[in-house]
Amino acid sequence: MKPIDPKLVQEHLIKVAGQALYIHLETTNGAYATHKNEAFFSAGAFIRNVQLTFLQGKITGKGPYRIGLETEQGWLYAEGLTEWELDSKGRLLLAGHDAEGKLAVALQMSASPFPK
Amino acid sequence: MEQHVLVVFPHPDDEAFGVAGTILSHTQAGTPVTYVCLTLGEMGRNMGRPIIANRETLPSIRKKELEEAARLLGITDLRRFGMRDKTVEFTDQIALQNRLFDVIEEVDPSLIITFYPGYAVHPDHDATGAAVIQAVQRLPKGSRPKVHALAFSNGCEEMLGEPDVINDITPYTAQKIKVIEAHTSQTAGMIEAMKQGYKAEDKDIIERLTIERFWTYPVAEGD
User: Fold this and answer.
1) Which superkingdom heads the taxonomic lineage of this protein's source (chain A) (predicted)?
2) Cβ separation of B51 and A1 shorter than 8 Å?
């Protein structure tokens, strides 16, 4: 992955708006966060291969970046995004890594489903 | 000497930290070891240092790392169950127990090594240990293999007492470090510190690399 170029990501979001896309969205502190520090409240969530079509999508911020996608009925939002990649299968992969390089957030979209 | 050892863990690298020396002691004694690894650790937060993976390439990277670790451990029977990281506790439990039961019947282990359910921190660890125990307890009381369970939750010793199986794995320490190192995408950030700590005779690190501790799970007591 490489550091996010917001201009290129924005161009891609404009290109895929209106298409049915499979989404992977996750955020996590890791399963050991509370084990290592009992005062830490661990939380995380992921959803994979839910399909949606967004009307408009925007990337904002100065880095780390935020992305919001507006659908007919609602919204998708992710923050903390730092890296991106348009992979060989044409999938847009976005991720946010913390100072140690650990994945903290991921947002991915693809015209075909991601492997289960 | 064991007749056959069955190791069941949910993530590639679970076998490296607390169990590698014990596995090596069995394989080097000529005991066959079967390792069932339920997932490919697809949801790992570590992506290598420097970053070598993304969410979609991580599974194939960890699969290769797992195969290399198994080779270093002398494991010739590695079985992957193809489940997804973080989902073990939500999957069909009876179906999982059935699959584990089939492996237990097939390889007929004298010893099973897995996580101690309820005391292994990660929900996948606890669910894996619970499924293994359930599968073992389907066997008639007299013919159940021993189960050595790994526990490391905070305060687990207050609840479970001292571990009753203490393996001195000093002869395998260098090999254990190589196994940990084989899981590069997960361990690259810590392996150097671990090696240096070992050289500098850091008490905690020496203990992690020379002693492996297990609790014998009371499988004979359940119906």
Assistant:
1) Bacteria
2) yes
CATH of region B5-216, choose from 3.30.470.10, 3.40.50.620, 3.40.50.10320, 3.40.190.10: 3.40.50.10320
d(C-alpha B9, C-alpha B89), whole Å: 13
Backbone torsions φ then ψ of B52, nearest 5 degrees = -120, -5
CA distance to A56, B16, B21, B85, B116, per residue, from B132 (Å) = 48, 19, 22, 17, 10
| Domain-wise residue ranges, chain B | 5-216
Yes or no, beta carbons of A102 and B121 under 8 Å apart: no
Task: For B89-134, write each residue's pLDDT tens digit.
Answer: 999 999 999 999 999 999 999 999 999 999 999 999 999 999 999 9
Rounded distance between C-alpha atoms, residue B212 and residue B164, angstroms: 11
Q: Hey, which residues does A115 pair with through a beta bridge? A: none
Contact A97 B47 (CB under 8 A): yes
ipTM of predicted assembly, 2 dp: 0.90
